[in-house]
Amino acid sequence: MKKIVSLCLALCIAGGLVFAGARREAKPLLGVITPAADHGFTAESIRHGEAQVKALAAQHGFDYRYLTAFESGEQSNHVDTILALKPKAVVLWPVTGDELRSAAQKVLDAGIPLILYDRFIEGFSPTAEISGDNVAIGEGAGRYFNNYFKDQLARGKVNYLEFKGDSSTVPMERTNGFLSTADKNFNLVQSFVTNWSQQTAMEQMESYLNTKSVEEIESIQAIWTHDDEIVFGLVNAIKNYRGSAKINIKLINGVSAGEGFMDLFENSGLSGIDFMTYTFSPSMVRDAIDLGYDALQGRTLQKSYKVPTEMIDKTNYKSYMQSEIYRVRYSL
What is residue 50's predicted lDDT score, i.e. its pLDDT? Predict the structure, then answer.
């Protein structure tokens, strides 16, 4: 009799464990795949993304997997890993959009909502897309440059250098926006691709200053960049220049409006150069995670979301540092 009772208890316990396991597996899963931390913006974004999905999962009782990768191939593998877990929704921030086309299509083919963040896939239609307003950043910068150099533009051409991030849709949108509003008398002398690296930007600027003629160097009046990190590299290169040419650069722009950029307005160490940037906070990834949760809940999403941007220069940076967007960015 004792053996029978023991056997029944064992079966009940085993059944309870199986049932509990089934309940755990039944939790809806949100998959999040982002680039790894190759520079400051990405590192900040990962912290915000992980914090947001962790908080939502604890509050609403779902599971999640947050995976990062430096390369598109590794991200594709992460998509397969997530799909094997049968997620209810996927948030994907591609390293390079076109290289993730096949992996992204797998998600849609499986009937799973897909939210693309920041870098898009040309000609591809996910469930929803969300990013900062890159076109507006470019357009706004073009108008700012026009106003800043209005006297010089009235007299003739203004030479400038461009320092892009990479070959993704983000720089393309920013450059196209800039060209759509910038005066036709702005003359692009040379364009560089930095891969969002402060070090690379510094080396490229140092090479330019050390290999070009005095006349070429002195002709540059503006630098149009795609990120604050790039600006830091350029500032270091200009400060380190010991050549005979006079630096006539009057304006350098960034994108991100991070804490380090705020210091440039008063402590750049460069005389006669003004700075301007646009808000593009790493905390925006929280909005992408929120959309992923909405999709997991079965809610209908818009096709496209744009996070508004704001111009920051020496006239308003102090008030910006007291704003809510700045507080959230540095809340972690």
Answer: 97
Spatial strand order of the sheet with 63-69 comes to 63-69, 29-35, 89-92, 114-117, 128-132, 304-307
* pLDDT for the residue numbered 25: 55
DSSP code of 52? Answer: H
Give the CA-trace dihedral at 151, 157, 158, 164, to 10 degrees.
140
Q: 188 and 226: one domain?
A: yes
Distances from the Cα of 42 to the Cα of 119, 285, 290, angstroms: 13, 10, 18
* β-pair partners for 32: 66, 91
Mean pLDDT to the nearest integer, 37-49? 88
Residues 251 and 148 in one domain: yes
Domain encompassing residue 156: 134-255
Amino acid of residue 161: L
User: How many domains are contained in the chain?
Assistant: 2
